[in-house]
Specification:
The relative contact order is 0.11. The longest helix has 36 residues. This protein has 268 residues and is mainly alpha-helical. It folds into two domains: 37 residues; 216 residues, MetI-like (MetI-like fold), CATH 1.10.3720.
């Protein structure tokens, strides 16, 4: 009985999640075929599908280069962000020192650093990877800092009252409290890494999916641009699903996992 309810619930979620895609495709078809909008503004679906064929020979190499830069920048950014997060969680001195810097750089868009990166590192893969690294690490650091600030002080005070040492408080209270937020921020950073890659490849790149997008833009081929955007979206979705599965494995002990209410809402 429970299995049947689980299957019904999953089917219901699939149907609810599918109708919006159907509405988008239908609206796209009506706009391009009935309203006769110029293809340079909204290209027909068949033109976008044709662009995959036209770009077929260029996509594999460009895809490999973009994935390489995204993954390298994401891994370096994650290492930097998580290391900074753990130091902030353990050391109040380091946290107080970093918090002012974090509050200062938080409103600054990473894209504003592009001219500086070009001046400092020149044109090539180094500034592109550095941009992704900085963007991912800042996201993880800022989210973790807020998670640390939101730890109930009463939990820490109670641990010290019962005779716990600093390392014990760190291991049993602080890290379990912020770990789910760190994993969540890594997912956000991963999604940002794909957007940062596009901006990075606009920094004089001669290869990659971002470069192909620039070429399509120069020839006013909106269908080709949309085709590359779809490729980026599929890659980001697959990677996010992988991180989502990893998150469930690593945070199985959290309240929402134990309660079985991962999709909890305030109303049904």
């Amino acid at each position: 009985m429970e299995k049947e309810e689980t299957v019904k619930t999953k089917m219901k979620k699939i149907l609810i999640g599918s109708w919006m895609w159907f509405a988008i495709v239908l609206g796209w078809f009506l706009i391009t075929n009935l309203l006769r909008v110029r293809p340079v503004i909204v290209p027909p679906i068949r033109d976008v599908l044709g662009s995959f064929v036209d770009l077929g020979g260029s996509i594999p190499k460009a895809l490999a280069i973009s994935i390489y830069m995204i993954m390298l920048g994401f891994i370096l950014g994650t290492i930097l962000g998580v290391s900074t997060s753990i130091l902030m969680a353990y050391s109040k001195f380091f946290r107080d020192s970093f918090s002012s810097i974090s509050d200062f750089i938080r409103p600054v868009p990473v894209f504003a650093l592009i001219p500086l990166f070009i001046l400092w590192f020149g044109i090539g893969r180094i500034p592109q990877i550095a941009l992704i690294t900085v963007g991912v690490s800042v996201i993880i650091g800022v989210v973790t800092l807020e998670a640390i600030r939101n730890i109930p002080k009463i939990h820490i005070d109670a641990a010290y009252t019962l005779g716990a040492k600093k390392k014990q408080v760190f291991a049993t209270i602080i890290m379990p409290s912020i770990f789910p937020h760190i994993i969540g921020s890594i997912r956000v950073g991963a999604a940002s890494a794909f957007g940062l890659d596009v901006a990075a490849e606009f920094m004089g790149s001669q290869e990659g999916l971002g470069y192909l997008m620039i070429v399509q833009q120069n020839y006013l081929k909106t269908d080709g641009i949309l085709a590359i955007v779809i490729i980026y979206s599929i890659l980001a979705f697959i990677f996010d699903r992988f991180l989502c599965v990893l998150e469930k494995k690593l945070t199985y002990w959290t309240e929402r996992r134990i309660g079985g209410r991962e999709d909890f809402m305030f109303y049904e």
